[in-house]
């Protein structure tokens, strides 16, 4: 029965740590850009082609 108390305590501590890290990331602006990821996939092929051309020219 004491193992359950230890596991619950550890899981609550881990949850608090992850929550504080998430709040810190939100406050520092980690998730502010919501437009670029949706558009990035449209231009990904062009970036790959340009990189291939540059490496072939060298």
UniProtKB/TrEMBL annotation:
Coiled coil recorded as keyword: no
Membrane spanning stretches: 6-26
Top-level taxon of origin: Bacteria
Keywords: Membrane, Transmembrane, Transmembrane helix
InterPro entries according to UniProt: Cyt_oxidase_maturation_cbb3
Protein name (database record): Cytochrome oxidase maturation protein, cbb3-type
Source species of the chain: Pustulibacterium marinum
């Amino acid at each position: 029965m004491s193992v359950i108390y230890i596991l619950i305590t550890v899981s609550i501590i881990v949850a608090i740590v992850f929550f504080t890290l998430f709040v810190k990331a939100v406050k520092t602006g980690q998730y502010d850009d919501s437009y670029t990821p949706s558009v990035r996939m449209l231009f990904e092929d062009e970036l790959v082609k340009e990189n291939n051309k540059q490496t072939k020219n060298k």
